[in-house]
Amino acid sequence: MSLFCCPICSAPLERLEQVYRCPNRHSYDIAAQGYTYLLPVSRKHSKAPGDDKVMSAARKAFLARDYYAPLQRALCRLACDLAPQGAVRILDSGCGEGYYTAALYHALAQTRKVQLAGIDISKFILRTAARRLKEGEFAVASAYHLPLAADSVDLLLDCFAPLAAEEFRRVLRPGGHFLYVVPAARHLWQFKEVLYDTPYPNEEKREEYPGFSYVDVVPVRDTIHLNCREDIENLLTMTPYVWRTGSAGKERLAALEELDTEIAFDIHVFRREN
User: Fold this and answer.
1) 150: which residues sit within 8 A by CB, 6+ positions away?
2) Is a pLDDT exceeding 90 seen at residue 44?
3) Where are the domains of the chain?
4) Nearest Cα to 157, choosing from 8, 265, 6?
5) 83, 155 in Cβ contact below 8 A?
6) Are 135 and 118 in contact (CB under 8 A)?
7) Quick one: CATH architecture of 14-272?
8) What is the pLDDT of residue 3?
9) Cα(91)–Cα(136) distance, rounded to whole angstroms?
10) Which residues contact 104 (CB under 8 A, 6 or more apart)?
11) Cα–Cα distance between 125 and 28 in angstroms, integer?
């Protein structure tokens, strides 16, 4: 049985070869790339929501170079420490191209039986995720209306994606953990110094959410060396800075052949209370 449930009637979905189907005869085709579409038309606010093809391609190319491998490794260590033994059910909310999703699956699958689902609002980026991890299941869906049953997952990851605390609490089992990754104050600081005359630090805060207890904040800090113009351009294109930066900043960045910049992430760890 799938981790997903029907977005229309909330009944469990069965995954067949080319379709998901619920007992009430609602069905959802599985695309050739391996993902399905569980976002009802009433909750779709644009023709192609989420990251477009250009942004998706830039993120895929950048992450393939493993610049964010320190974060990937930290998430795998946490997942192995927090996930229950035996069978474990994982949801990656806003999974993107599946860079962290696949790593979590393979780290946990060494010692556990893993069932994993990923959702994202962008169908373009999900194509990569579904191809990357054929053992998982992936769906276009909203984090604010997750197509999963209550208390159905043990571990939930939200990496730079919209936080839907009420829905996360609903789908996590009591005692399950939620990993929330955000940029720390000096994330991409030297990169931002090129783009802006006066760069600003990201806001850092600890926020409580009803139904969750705070477990820890795990810092990830490193410096990366971007050794070609293409990687620098992909970093810009995959971030909101591509929309927020004026022409002068973009011209300064385009003139660079290489760049060293800090990367800084905070992983906020929450536990769902009973």
Assistant:
1) 170, 171
2) no
3) 14-272
4) 265
5) yes
6) no
7) 3-Layer(aba) Sandwich (3.40)
8) 98
9) 10
10) 75, 76, 79, 90, 92, 116, 157
11) 19
Residue range 97-149, pLDDT digits in tens: 999 999 999 999 999 999 999 999 999 899 999 999 999 999 999 999 999 99
What is the sign of the dihedral through the CA atoms of 181, 183, 188 and 194?
A: positive
- The b/e string for 156-170 (b: 16+ C-beta within 10 A; e otherwise) is bbbbebebbbebbbb
Phi, psi of 193 (to 5 degrees): -65, -30
Q: Which of 49-53, 123-127, 211-215 has the highest mean pLDDT?
A: 211-215
Q: Which of 174, 162, 169, 193 is nearest to 259 (CA)?
A: 193
Amino acid at 41: V
Residues present in the chain in total: 274
For the segment 18-45, the average pLDDT, to the nearest whole number, is: 89
**How is residue 83 written in tokens?**
């996930």
pLDDT for the residue numbered 195: 97
Angle between helices 229-237 and 53-63 (to 10 degrees): 130
Share above pLDDT 90 across residues of the chain, in percent, rounded to a whole number: 92
For residues 116 and 114, give the distance between their C-alpha atoms in angstroms, rounded to a whole number.
6
pLDDT band (50, 70, 90) for residue 50: low
Rounded to whole angstroms, the Cα distance separating 222 from 264 reads 7
Longest CA pairwise span in the chain (Å): 59
- Contact (Cβ atoms closer than 8 angstroms) between residue 22 and residue 9: yes
> How does 74-92 read in b/e, with b if 16+ C-beta sit within 10 Å?
bbbebbeebbeeeebbbbb
> Using CA atoms, how far apart are residues 142 and 167, in angstroms rounded to an integer?
10
Question: Are the C-beta atoms of residues 57 and 128 closer than 8 Å to each other?
Answer: no
